[in-house]
Specification:
alpha/beta, binds UDP-4-deoxy-4-formamido-beta-L-arabinopyranose, three-stranded mixed sheet
Amino acid sequence: MAILLPGGAGYIGSHTAVELLNSGRDIVIIDNFANSKPEVLDKIRKITGKDFKFYEMDYANEKELEKVFSENKIEAVMNFAGYKAVGESVKEPIMYYQNNIGGCVAILKVMKKFGCKKFIFSSSATVYGDPKVIPITEECEIGGTTNPYGTTKLFIEQILKDVYASDNSMDICILRYFNPVGAHSSGLIGEEPQGIPNNLMPYIVRVAAGILPELSVFGNDYNTPDGTGVRDYIHVVDLAKGHVKALEKLDKENKGLYIYNLGTGTGYSVLDMVKAFESSTGKEVKYKIAPRRAGDIASCYADPKKAKEELGWVAEKNLEDMCKDSWNYIQNSQKM
Ligand code: WQD
């Protein structure tokens, strides 16, 4: 029996592949390398010393998905595939709805055909929109997403609720990620955004490495301790381990649809991140204060209690680990 990972060569997918293999699971990865590279597969093998099957294909292709399901005994699917650039989603909403929602629906359709019941979905804290209460619990209202990327996550959550309502023998887990950062401690896999990064940590490491001249801090007049935006940054390896715990939950519990926040519960500001990066790596991060970025909110951090109580999962890595591992990865990837 294997776990199917659409998007398993991507940033979060590859780290989860490592944790699944290390916990003794068999996996099958499918990826079309839209935002990842074939070398990642060998790096997963190198880190774990384990092999797995791989199919280069589009995860929305039902015919090819059927082939994967007929050639392998798939007991669960963890869906990491999908587009994730917020700005691009505003310019290309149809592309986002078609790929993210169409791909997910294709998987669910083929799972149904083959009687596969367990599904773990990569959702996002973005489904909470501008949260009314912080820290955010899973009971907080969802909606009010500010871009098509976020709305695809919101809509897919609704699709999963409808699928579960129609078939209570399904076992579904929605994981709402906060802000994933960091890389595997081996320095072999990590985040590799194409072009100029939009997210904070990839931008910081590129400034520290001299690839980009300086960081623009988007706004210092928010209602936060230092005026800059506050987020819940979580190490990608902790996030990956959360998926292993979620799978264990689906293995042993009664059928259900479960929702968990995966965050640390601590919020850090943009300037906290700059300082932490400088002190963990000894590298300077030049920055300037710039206007607010459209669509940004002041603060967003998780209440991760439910995941602790029900999954036995807590984030173990600290901000220093996140900074050091991000830095280690970019240095390694530049050498390669
Ligand atoms: C964090 C903070 C910025 C860049 C987005 C998506 C979310 C998820 C993760 C996934 C904010 C500030 C950033 C920069 C800055 N998507 N910042 N200068 O916006 O919380 O979440 O990414 O794939 O769905 O919405 O993350 O890293 O972009 O920003 O000052 O150059 O850093 O204003 O306060 P965000 P982020």
